[in-house]
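Reader question, answered in our methods column.
A reader sent in the components of a multi-part assembly and asked whether the whole thing could be modeled at once rather than chain by chain. We filled in our standard form and ran it. Here is what they sent:
COMPLEX SIZE: two components
ENTRIES:
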Amino acid sequence: MEDNYEEYDNAFVGNLGDMGYGEDTQAAGEPASQIENKPKIFLMGLKRSGKSSIQKVVFHKMLPNETLFLESTSKVVKNDISNSSFVQFQIWDFPGQLDFFDPSFDYEYILNNCGAIVFVIDAQDEIIEALQKLHQTIAKVYQINPNIHFEVFIHKSDGLSDDHKIDRQRDIQQKTTEELADANINVHPSFYVTSIYDHSIFEAFSKVIQKLIPQLPTLENLLDVFISRSRIEKAFLVDVVSKIYVATDNSPVDMQTYELCSDMIDVVIDVSCIYGLKEEEEGLGYDQESHSVIKLNNGMVLYLKEVNKYLALVCLLRESNFDKHGLIDYNFICFKKAIEEVFSRKTTKAGAKKTIKKAN
Amino acid sequence: MLRSKILPQILNQAINNTDTKGVLLMKDDGSLIACSDATTSSHNTSKIVAAITSNIWTAYNRNSDLQYQLIDCEEGRFVITRVASLLLCVYSDINTEFGLLKLKTQKLREYLEEPLSKVEHVQ
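And here is the structure of the entire assembly that came back:
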């Protein structure tokens, strides 16, 4: 974990004023320069591979069907989601036809505070060209900033059968790894099969974001302790706006559970938007009092609690283990306190680093 | 239906001097139905007290014949008893004698027993 910290610090803190997370105290209107300094995630890939659709569906709640009518992106779209979400990263959507390595591009500056590059490959299309471009991109980026994580989304998987999906993934994975090994590049991209028509894209994005969160092991440990003490089956720490999960416990993630949990957030927010807000009042319908328990007819209980402005804890547990609601609430209070401590520690550490830098 | 605004006011009557710190009405699983605190301490304290005391109650109430439970802690004293299908908890600082605290709980219980037993048992 220490190593993780150091790596992250070297990669970002030097260039960054801000750690890239939302804090409760943060003012809504930030100066533009600060936003510019947020760590970035780049969406790249050939044209028509679905980059803008991913961005729209994950961060703008666009319906997947509506993305059919999206125009081709013609210039780099910088998407700042930092004011509404815990995920305080800037998503840059690169147009497919753009030659990123045009010498007139100041890519060294751009790449220096980039956290991850998401490369989108259309699984329903020919992959040779895409793989070439992927290889090219990795080779160039690696020279400039070897700390960047590479994530490959094998996208539009909804049109493929299950066997076909696995074949495609194996094919792409194998070719990429071989090519990288041949070129002596020590990068290990992660591969995800995604589609905007189900939750796979959210899950894949969650994994991408998690790699950029240095506190992840601590959060996971906290969740583990919490669920074992409260006899909970599965717990997610979810970003309310984007439904990306920032952390989960160590048991394997079941897609259906995650879908259920993210649907629950929708239900809670919709209900409190309709009944919770006063007339003329604007807002997300999500505040400190947000708390919900849904009993399912299969003997399971969904439990949601507010953690902070951006995050909610969503748990799934058996109804027979839900006999002591009060104790679970109490455990949650302890958990929440710990989470607050984790994030406040991070900001003070970053602050201390900055002062040292100034003194030098 | 319980009248959620009146109930804390009734509970508040038990806090007539400084020694009683709070009165809670909760379900067996520890979820609060109504509460009243002497100080304007955060609502969280009541939730924690409710969670822990109800858990102790259910742990000792194996034969369902527990009438009163008195807990003596380093910084306070608790009396818990059953009212209809709910639990009533009164707690105070260390200087209050148990007799007084128990009497107070008993009176409150007598007062609440009848109206609360009319309320449908919600599980």
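What stands out: Helices of chain B lie at 6-12, 43-60, 98-118. Chain B has one domain: 5-120.
Send us your own complexes using the same form.
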